Write the structure tokens for this entry.
Amino acid sequence: MTTPAMGPAANVIVLDSWALLAYLNEEPAAQQVRQVLRRARRHEILALISIMNFGECLYTLERRVGREHTLEVAGHIDQLPIEVVLADRKLVFEAAHLKANYPVSYADAFAAALAMRHRARLMTGDLEFKALEKEVAIHWLR
């Protein structure tokens, strides 16, 4: 496993659902996410999100605003400079290992596993990730 001590790749950011929802809902942390997206659009960095976290955003939005509006928002997300990473067998095993050993949600385990795979910094404001700070570098949103 890659640890933060090895240093995160400065050019890769993994967003979790907390970060993407903060951006979509124009919360105070949205400005920091917006800056990352601008840099990704200029190809200065690579912004990633796990398909599991993408799905987490969708179900959260659908509960709040309904299916029709969620489909519109999904179209907007598709236009963002974020690569949605599918879960292959290896990523599933890595996420399962994290879930088995840390008090995090299964979707959060995917975000962390993806960040670890890419030696990336994980952008979030979800305090559940405190448990993983020794495993993955966190870019805390406030």
Observations:
- The radius of gyration is 14 Å.
- The chain has one domain: 9-140.
